[in-house]
Amino acid sequence: MISNADALEEKILRRIPGEVLGFSFLLAASASLIFDIYMGLFVLGGGILSATYFVWLRQALSKVLLREKKQALKASALVFILRLMLILAIFFIIIFFFSKKIIAFAAGFSSIIIVLLIEAVAAMSRLKTWKN
Predict the structure, then answer these.
(1) I want to staple 39 with a disulfide (CB 3.0 to 4.6 A). Which of 2, 31, 77, 93 is the partner?
(2) Distance from C-alpha of 38 to C-alpha of 28, rounded to nearest angstrom
(3) Domain ranges, ordered by start, for the chain
(4) Is this prediction's pTM over 0.85?
(5) What's the CA gap between 85 and 75, in Å, rounded?
């Protein structure tokens, strides 16, 4: 049986990637106006990668938590490591070819932190009572 809190949590987790994309788009538009179009594209690219990685991680954790087999855990750990290596490879490519734009990409990639912080504050404000 799904409780009201679980439904709210699921709703928030489904909403986060879209919010990350929206926030990174706002950052990208601002960076394009202040700096140049390439800076904006790197911010947007970082946000897209961040949202994609969040979706991947959520799907992987859902699969692992539904299964209790050791083999599923090993396979999931391998997929997680491969995805992490993919992100590191993207960062290294950007550092190697576009070293002056890495801060813009990192800003877009880090937009998930701001979105998670806003969601946490919003969830805390919905609490009616504090538990000791």
Answers:
(1) 31
(2) 9
(3) 4-122
(4) no
(5) 15
